[in-house]
Amino acid sequence: MTAARAAADRVSLGVDFGATGVRALYAGPGERVHRLDVPARGWPWLVCAPAGAGVLPVAFPSLKSLLSGGRSVPWREGTADADTVVTRMLRALRERVEEQASAFVAQTVISVPASFLSSQRQALRDAAREAGLAPVRLISDSMAAVMGHTTDRDSGTFLVYGMGYDGFELGLVRGVRGHCRALRYDGATTSGGRAFDEAVLASAVRLLRAHRGPASVTGAPAEVWLGHRERAQAARQALSGPEDADASAATDFAALTLDLGTGPALRMGVTRPNMDAFLEPHVRRTVRRAQTLLDEAGVAGADVDTLLLVGGGTRMEQVRAGVAGLGRRTAYGVPELLALGALKHAVRLGGGGASSSGSSGAAALEEGLLEPADPHRDTLADAPALTATLFPPDDPPDPRRRDVAQARHLAEQGRRQEAVALLRDIVAEARELLVGLGAEVDASRGAEASAGATGASSAEAYPGTTSGGTGTYAGREAPDPAGVPEQRAEPEQKPNPEPERKPDTRSQSEQKPQPERKPDSEPESAPTEAPPAPMSRRAVRQLSRARDLLGLGQYEHAVQTSHAAWQEATPHASRADLLDAMIDVHCAAAMADMAPERFADAERWLRCAYGHDPTNERVRGLLARRTFRHAEELHRIGARDEAIEALGKCLTWDPEHPGAEALSRRLGRDVRNRRGRGDVLD
Q1: What's the pLDDT score for residue 673?
Q2: In angstroms, rounded to a whole number, what is the distance separating the alpha carbons of residues 373 and 380?
Q3: First to last CA, the chain
Q4: Around 115, how many Cα atoms within 13 Å sit in the side-chain half-sphere?
Q5: pLDDT confidence of 669, banded at 50, 70, 90?
Q6: Quick one: how far is CA 506 from the chain centroid?
Q7: Structure confidence at residue 528 as a pLDDT band (50, 70, 90)
């Protein structure tokens, strides 16, 4: 009875010690989990400090990164040591938990990055003990993520991809029925929320220095810089949200005002294509590091059961599209995932839980020794600076401005893709207005002309697309716009000659004037049918954006955007044309990168295109071509069985493919019997 009561007076606490805040979960024995909301305001999570080098004169390190460094941070009306502030924060957290639970905290587990230094870990342990959170254990964020995501019955290999404020971290964890073992870690600080937000702010500072000199960016207080950092973060989040989000969460243009009190405020703007171009090398580098991590651990990419995304940075659309394919399936961690994993481990350490394999407590977790990160690998020499545009404070450009002058201005700045996308929008809007004004003939001819221009630019911009036709879409003959043949034939009908033959029947002309002119009235009755509905502006914009994304190498995002454009055009008569354009995007994405690791994505995109139009011979041909190239690569690296399997698929798409036949003979196998297994055709 006494032991049961003592257990009821105890709770376990799991803490996610983040760079911009703390999330905490607690639970008593056999009780449900409770969340404790820790207010972000009132604590110096981020501070402003002088920068050692670079365009930006200041930096914004997190309180967490300053642990054990002896650095002072702003606190209340003065300053305090970073370790002291963390101690006070943990003490306030413990007091709130014990107040709400009417019990004392018996076991605490805190999740921290695997890259946390030994001195920082010791400083955090000391702060927790001084705050009354003893005993306390630390586990890595990757381990906490896997423990929070799985149950004691789950098994698998997990690649944890975390991107937060202080950088990105990769963790390879293997879990077997509640027993987790860390295989390898990697990470860096140059790709994360802090680096991205500072890049946005640096682009504004670069413009300010160029126009007003170096002195214009000095002397501003820390509070001013911190406020600008928050606005830079808001701009970055707006430009990296999903396209289908509401207007407050996603936009194609974000404005930022820089006012340091040294002169008139400076206004600048960043477009979404520029943000995409800036983020792409960062994401690409993290993917390369993930592939290297798997190679060093001796784990094949196909053996990664789950790619687990955690951290605020993984909510960016550019990141999600770039890392797709690192695991057989992708799971998106909830914000409380790390705290939940820490809580589960705390419960086990307290004897309140055990895995089905019989292991409990510390034995259910194996982290091993962590090697310090190599500072020489934490570089991003090929990363371009974020491009921003300056405009006067009293006459900011309307982000909705859509005229030819603006397109010409973009082209003069070297921003060709943005200019092309804007011109496409202008042409589509003009077509829509012309049809609305009743100018069907001109609208149709304008549509035909714009379609030809679009096809030319598409064939030029996307080398993966073959242009064997003469119309809009690469490799296919462009369909004539609806109504154009009839309208071109009107001048040849010449209704005037009919009255000229009427004098031969003058005696009957007064009785039959209407029947003779009735054929002439038919062209007037034909337009009673509603003209084809113009394609919606949103569909045109999405299609233009999909093509721009192809040029930026964002293939997955381009395919998804083309799907959205096609769905948007569902009620319109032009949907058939848009279907062809969507298929073109799929084909261009699939054929743009012939690397073996991109085959799974390429095949998926081509099969998707084939599912939309099973009669499309071009898609079948590209499927055969891409699969054959993959078979050649497999043969080159010695994967004979996989090459034979790929050749079987190739011959399913094109039974007369000469290259596949020749390679199969070289392999000494007849691969035709490997076709028809149902793994190619739906």
Answers
A1: 44
A2: 15
A3: 64
A4: 17
A5: low
A6: 77
A7: very low
